Amino acid sequence: MKAVVIKGGKGPAEALSLLDSVQAPDAPGPNEAIVKIAAFALNRMDISQRNGVYPVPPHAPSTLGVEFSGTIEVIGPDSTTDLKVGDRVFGLVAGGAYAEYVRCSTKLLLPYSEPTTLESTLTFLTAAGIPEVWFTATQVLLQIAQIHLIKDRIKNVLIHAGASAVGTAALQLARSVLGPEAKLFATVGSDEKVKFVESVAGADYGINYKKYDFVKFITDKTDGAGVDVILDLVGQDYFMKNLTIAATDARMVLISTISGGVVEHANIGMILYKRLRIEGTTLRSRTIEYQSEIKELFQKYALPHLLSGEFVNPVDKVFSWEDIVQAHKYMESNAAMGKIVCVVD
Amino acid sequence: MKAVVIKGGKGPAEALSLLDSVQAPDAPGPNEAIVKIAAFALNRMDISQRNGVYPVPPHAPSTLGVEFSGTIEVIGPDSTTDLKVGDRVFGLVAGGAYAEYVRCSTKLLLPYSEPTTLESTLTFLTAAGIPEVWFTATQVLLQIAQIHLIKDRIKNVLIHAGASAVGTAALQLARSVLGPEAKLFATVGSDEKVKFVESVAGADYGINYKKYDFVKFITDKTDGAGVDVILDLVGQDYFMKNLTIAATDARMVLISTISGGVVEHANIGMILYKRLRIEGTTLRSRTIEYQSEIKELFQKYALPHLLSGEFVNPVDKVFSWEDIVQAHKYMESNAAMGKIVCVVD
Lengths: 345, 345
Hints:
The structure is a homodimer.
Chain A: E1 3-6, E2 16-19, E3 32-41, H1 44-50, E4 67-75, E5 88-92, E6 101-105, E7 109-111, H2 124-128, H3 131-144, E8 156-159, H4 165-178, E9 183-188, H5 191-199, E10 205-208, H6 214-221, E11 227-232, H7 239-245, E12 246-254, E13 262-263, E14 266-267, H8 269-273, E15 277-280, H9 288-301, H10 303-308, E16 315-320, H11 324-332, E17 339-343
Parallel strand pairs in A: 8-9, 8-11, 9-10, 11-12, 12-15, 16-17
Antiparallel strand pairs in A: 1-2, 3-4, 3-6, 3-17, 4-5, 5-7
């Protein structure tokens, strides 16, 4: 089959190449399927993996790609799924989506139909870019912070990198779960992104971190109360600021440490006297069972709003997979505001 | 009524004095009771509070004392409790137990009977020293770390200060919930305490931290797997060691920061890639509702074993409350291995 390979095993964007002699996946086992891929979406971890610096889970194939849309070609024996051959699906996989065919768990597939009315917004292009971002937002806010279970005591929420794909998803999900009363704060890196998170993603306040100290900004806007939930991916540079702006009993979820992972003078006394919960998490390294719990929360709390068009999952740019080198370079340029999708054409 | 007061509002042990002209508590409201106290137990926070450095909850009386045993004297109107006047009870309160009478929530009272057979081990002396320690152990292991809900994946547990009252309780509770297969590690400060935690508290390995590096010790004994649950009260000096010895998906609960609260070079990257959950907690500052959730877990998972004598809650020394100065000095000497109890005689 055709698939994107990395010449030499790792390298820059130019090392990517579409070959037509790649071995097809093994036959699916129970609760597995082979999906003929229509489109896949890019993620930052694809770049890390291409550079040889990502801790790829042991069971993942060497081919890049964790999310896709397509059509079910084969379903493994003794599977308990309601899905059937020919169904249009999108889903998450530990790797291998930059290919004509991928072997995946039926527990992480979701069916969709091409839109037949103008109101429906999900196509194979938009669906391909949903799983990684929305499963992550669902995992952070629902499975870990459990905001749906404690929503009565959540007044203020802080989403860092609010204009990122995960940030945009988290803001919409938080608004939907918590209702109009909750105040949503989002840090972003430009005034353009302030407008974006306030108009598109439902933030009450976009905070341009290049102009404002978010601790001071939020302290002012909450009369000193601070925030009850924090989604962070900055790490090192924000750790003490996050602890400072956290309210009593706040929950902070760490999904990356972009600025580094070592904090000088970490005041962990704040964890004690504010009774904070801090949890680090990743999505790709998790078991199928764990990911399928996320899928169920996603189906309940997010998918209906994505299907109705109430939630947006912006696609910034679509490439043919023959232009995978350009697609990776575009992602590396940090110019995208939304998903980058490749069509397997 | 009689009560222990602190002359001058704060000071050393000698500032404590038993006066007989202290104002009795106000009449109880709904779901409150007045208990005539038989005995109260000492806690380290009593010393901090006496020294004027403890953040006393706003609703607490100025009189010291958070745990006691005694007899119900009055029950407030419109109470929903099954308890009745004359019942022997022990319980937790935000303050005021160093007195003849205390006003408290009926939701935090537990009934007990004086032993009529040799098999029953709970007396007014032992009962007085149970709530603070056992509610704390229950809160940490069950309400926060939830080891009863995830026991299948807990193989190794680390309890710091294993010979302390909370450490001893936590070891026994962990053993009871997790069964004989779990490996329990406990750090202690002497070889005598190694013997104590291994013979009395059910630890598999007491580790004298003055002789051994607990990270190396546990790495060896678990073939590098590390621990799934950590109860810490040391803070600063142990933070990075705890993160280092934590297994993937480990949960760490911080209940104090005895060595200080500021960590130099805190590698929070470990929180991310090990997917750790770190939570700080305190007991006394919590709402009655939260504490009564702990009480229910305690009644289910610990109380039956305390009543049967399977769990021990060692009382080190009993004083008359007339000797409260000596009792506080004894606690400050750090010689006690178990609770210090004062009889209101």
